[in-house]
Amino acid sequence: MKTFIYLVIACFILTACTLDKTNYEAETNTVVPDNQAFKEVFSVENDAYILRVEALEGQLYQGYNEVRVHVLDSHTKQVIEDAKVSVLPLHLVEGEKEDSCPHSPAWVYQPQDKYYSGYCVFTQEGVKGAWVLVLTVEGKTIAFQKREPIEVKHQSNMNLNMTTFIGQDQEEYLIALVAPVQPKVAENKLVAGIFKRNKTVEAQSLDQTYLAVENYTLLLDPRMPEPSMGNHSSPNNRDLVQRPDGFYEGIVNYTMTGNWTLNFILQNHQGRILKGTKVPTDFTPGVAGVKSELFIDILF
User: Fold this and answer.
1) Containing H/E element for 7?
2) What's the CATH code of the domain at 165?
3) What is the mean pLDDT of residues 43-53?
């Protein structure tokens, strides 16, 4: 009798997993587009420079965005390789002061492809004009600055989700997923930016509104929280630690397609827990899984 019951339960779980997996694979075609091409978002020009700003598919989204800036001489149309380039994103709210978001402190020239690279992490979506990019180029003899209204769209790819929260130290934090854009059923390199709002920033220093945190650890426990999945996890995951470029990297092992929750515990450089709770390890078929108080949901 016990053997029969176990077989029924096993069949139920396997069937549910198969159905959910099939549904998620169909949904993946619409929610995780294969955005690999960088296209122009806008361009501006004056007597000295032509500036072309590019992003994936020519769109900017809430969350992490890689941004490229091409700088050309407006007369010769030749690429300028030795300029100092900065991009400051500003959020404009009527009746309130300007605010910014995490972005590259320095834009680095990539000689192979001849552009300046950096990133912006837009904290919310907004129609054109709610956000602007302030582009500054300093050449050997001429400087140029331009404010350009932009639109920031809703990010439909949940693999690039972000979250904001107040830590136990009463500081405001932001975690934004950077990679993978398109996960695989495998061990994936998981990359995230972790930023803290700078309480001391002055109006003239909006480029310092958010700072990347140093030497923190982001403990990772990925789970499939759907009742049919039983809140199961996967082996060979690795916590996120800081890389030389300031971003945090670990390993997340997705054993099947579907709904996953990245449960986190954020520790500072002294090992103090700032946010997050441990997730129960019980296998709970038929019951939704418990999530950490710090988590990000993804879907692929």
Assistant:
1) helix 2-31
2) 2.60.40
3) 95
